[in-house]
Amino acid sequence: MNTKKLVLTIIVVFVVANLTGFFIHAVLLRPEYMAVKEHYRPEGRR
Asked: Alpha helices of 1-46 — where are they, by DSSP H?
């Protein structure tokens, strides 16, 4: 298999997977996360 094509494919799949995850969690599921935000630790606390 062509090594350049393999590396490019791996990079493209990595980028698409991360963008898809961001879209699902930051856009589609944001209202669901905000509905239960009191169950999360407050910002600034460890």
From this structure: 3-22, 30-35
CA separation, residue 45 to residues 28, 34, 35, 40, 41 (Å): 26, 18, 20, 11, 7
Cα separation, 20 vs 25, in Å, equals 9
Alpha carbons 30 and 40: distance in angstroms, whole number: 14
Express each pLDDT in 11-37 by its tens digit.
999 999 999 999 999 999 999 999 998
Structure letter (DSSP) for residue 39: G
Report the amino acid identity of residue 5: K
